[in-house]
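Please fill in the sequence for the structure shown.

STRUCTURE ENCODING:
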């Protein structure tokens, strides 16, 4: 027996582990493909996809705390802080300490940041329309697909780690 052969064989009672059968990989690959669809349009705005998501929240909700942004985007402060630093350096957002709570930092879009909103507004509409026209959604309603993904995310978030079968 060659070195490693024993390790490569699953036990008789173990399920097959095939990449294409993994739900997690299908979601990961779809997410990466969707982000790639956004990239050229966001490049024209000078935004990365995560920066775009920050701006979408600010355009929708107005001034919000860094903590609120992190919760809304499901990002930890170690990931969010560099995003905010780059957006602030680019003149798209302002950050300031809350007058009511010095521990809280508030974030808002600048005038320059607001000017991107109208250009960005067409991106999701155009992408969804193009996917539907290409038949890429396989007849799935985009709203129903989004709602199903939200339900899945909630279920995964609300379930203790290691208990999802």
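FILLED IN BY: designer on duty
SEQUENCE:
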């Amino acid at each position: 027996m060659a070195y490693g052969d024993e390790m490569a064989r699953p036990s008789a009672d173990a399920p097959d582990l095939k990449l294409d059968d993994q739900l997690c990989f299908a979601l990961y690959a779809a997410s990466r493909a969707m982000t790639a669809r956004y990239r050229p349009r966001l490049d024209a705005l000078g935004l990365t996809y995560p920066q775009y998501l920050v701006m979408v929240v600010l355009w929708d909700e107005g001034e919000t705390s860094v903590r609120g942004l992190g919760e809304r985007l499901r990002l930890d402060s170690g990931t969010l802080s560099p995003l905010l630093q780059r957006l602030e350096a680019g003149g798209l957002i302002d950050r300031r300490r809350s007058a009511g709570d010095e521990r809280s930092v508030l974030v808002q879009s600048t005038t320059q940041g607001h000017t991107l909103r109208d250009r960005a507004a067409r991106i999701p509409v155009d992408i969804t329309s193009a996917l539907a026209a290409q038949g890429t959604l396989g007849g799935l309603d985009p709203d129903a697909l989004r709602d199903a993904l939200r339900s899945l995310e909630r279920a995964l978030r609300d379930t203790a780690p290691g208990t999802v079968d």
